[in-house]
Amino acid sequence: MRTHHSIPLVAVAAGFLALTACAAPQTEGPASKDPKPAGSAPTTSTAPAAPSAKSRKATLPNMIGKGLQSAQDEAQAAGFPLLKSHDSLGRDRNQVLDRAWKVCTQTPAAGGAVDTATTIDFGTVKLEETCPDGEITAPKPAGDTMPDFVGQGMKAVRGALPSNASITVKDATAQGRMVLQESNWKVCTQTPKAGAALSGAPVAFTVVKTGESCP
Hints:
Layout: H1 9-23, E1 57-60, H2 68-77, E2 83-87, E3 101-107, E4 111-115, E5 120-126, H3 154-160, E6 167-171, E7 185-191, E8 203-209
């Protein structure tokens, strides 16, 4: 008869656990990742330096005699984005096509240390016109009396009168032409005459084209 020797189950389990513990891989702790040398400073982002007061000043070029479009481009390239223009002949014409106009005056004048927030104003005439010796200003708004509008551009004259004024405009010549674009016509006669009271009565003008003489 054979004798069977059994190994206690508890002893086998204990031995298995001991072997597993010895074979378990070691894991890296947080401190082992991306080690930094002792005493190194933390990484920070540097904000851009605030612009100095001098950065708001620039040299304004002299653009008198240049085409309006070229002058505008040059002013913007020099750091002046705020631009406007007006009719140097006082006729209140709009500079619809900038390339068809040239610069007679500029405000402020060319020079250094000009604030780039300044609005540059160009006084202009059409390419085929001659710049006046001095700026011809458009008529000021009429008050209670009729100004002297003779010789002035009809468009500017209309702008100087009250918006509710009843205005008639006719060709001063015998041709009976229609006055379609008032900025191209000038006043020959006016009713009422200069100095008369503006009481709401209709206002009438006779006109000729700008390059013509009044009859």
